Amino acid sequence: SALFKIASGLLFDERQIQNIIKDNNAQIVTVSRDFFVIAKSGRRNEIDQMHDQLKPYGIMQFVRSGRISVTKDEMKISALLKEFK
Fold first, then answer.
1. Spatial CA neighbour of 3 closest among 77, 69, 78, 61
2. What is the pTM of this model?
3. DSSP states of the chain as a string?
């Protein structure tokens, strides 16, 4: 997964940005006066491809997360916390 921070003006002024978001099955997760944030999940090469497409427009910030997961079995949080004390 990755997050892209882009200048807000581009969302409205550059039609191609909207096409990139749609074509890459990404989502806009935050919009403010100065910037908007796009979230993209997928394989590394899919994220790299989207990065390459957005780069000419100017990426204010970019962050990639590692793999994340949750356990299927119930976790006893209290018992785990006692182990760390």
1. 61
2. 0.75
3. -EEEEEEHHHHHH-HHHHHHHHHTT-EEEEE-SSEEEEEE-S-HHHHHHHHHHHGGG--SEEEE-------SS---HHHHHHHH-
Output the tens digit of pLDDT for each of the chain's 85 residues.
999 999 998 887 788 999 999 999 999 999 999 999 999 999 999 999 999 999 999 999 999 987 666 666 766 777 767 777 6
Distances in Å between the Cα of 51 and the Cα atoms of 29, 31, 73, 75, 81 are 17, 19, 36, 37, 40
